[in-house]
Amino acid sequence: MTRVVLIGAPIAIAVSLVFNSGGDAALPENSPTAEASAAGPVNPDPFAAADEEERREMNEKVERAPAGLATPEMREIAWKLLASAEGSTLDWHTQYATIEDSGDGTGYAAGIVGFCSGTHDMLTFVEAFTKDHPDSPLAPFVPALRKVDGTGSHEGLDPGFTAAWKKAAEDPAFRKAQDEVRDTQYFEPAVRLAKLDGLGTLGQFIYFDAMVLQGPGHEADSFYGIRKAALAEADTVAEGGDESAYLDIFLDTARAVMKSKKTQHDTSRIDTAQRVFLEDENLDLEPPLTWKMYGETFRIPS
């Protein structure tokens, strides 16, 4: 994954600060991620950048919108769809402990949103978690994670890091921390913005998946950059545009970004999943759902 995660410790408080107040979360000193955060715009989320009155109006608009992906039933579908892309499974509960290096140059990828040792997000997550849980099996590996950040190297991580991650995943607190990052870093801002754009359940998932994959950054190849490019070509529903036409442009833009990255040439999550739902005009993402991911067929019954 290509993400710059802007969180600190403790996980729940820092994530809330980043996405609800628009302020900087405190990152551990001497962290490459802290340096990266200081080097550029902190938060491109329009909600976080808004003043108090604007946020109140946005919240009212979101509250008036249909629940969409925010219902418990649809959240479960979202977790399954994401797990099919991140781990080729519908059993997303098994993904907390998953860790492997696929050889794509991003190092180890692990957990329910694919934290990567080479793309900042694993480093900031582990730094934050071990600050609150210094007895975590991952604590001894923080210095090594700092050294390999930005690379695909395993130096200092092997042997032992994969076993430590799996051991840490036995801790309910570690699983809860992953949930909080998924929900507050990616899901909630994506669904909120999709509702502000007038998008239904499918559009909300498309935003969420793109934010997980590309990160909530301002760059052209990050989520907010993709949305900005799509907005230049099509109007959202909130702007009077056609929902399917806008989502078609958004998927085209997101796919082009994926193809531009040497680590993301397989575009199954768009071509044989999200695009299929769109072509079926299933804007509410109502089951039954059938899609393919990396050639494998997945189904969610009605």
Report on this model:
This protein is mainly α and 302 residues long. 52% of the residues lie in helices and 5% in strands. The protein has 13 helices and five strands. Strands 1-2-3 form a three-stranded antiparallel beta sheet. Helix 1 packs parallel to helix 9 (172-196), helix 11 crosses helix 12 and helix 12 runs antiparallel to helix 13. The two termini are 31 Å apart.
Radius of gyration: 18 Å
- The gross shape turns out to be globular
Q: Please report the number of helical segments.
A: 13
Between the first and last Cα atoms, what is the distance in angstroms?
A: 31 Å
Strand order of the largest sheet: 1-2-3
> pLDDT below 50 for ≥5 consecutive residues: which ranges?
2-41
Mean pLDDT equals 87
Helical content class: 40-55%
Which structural class matches the secondary elements? Answer: mainly alpha
Write down how many β-strands occur, each being a DSSP E stretch of 2 or more residues: 5
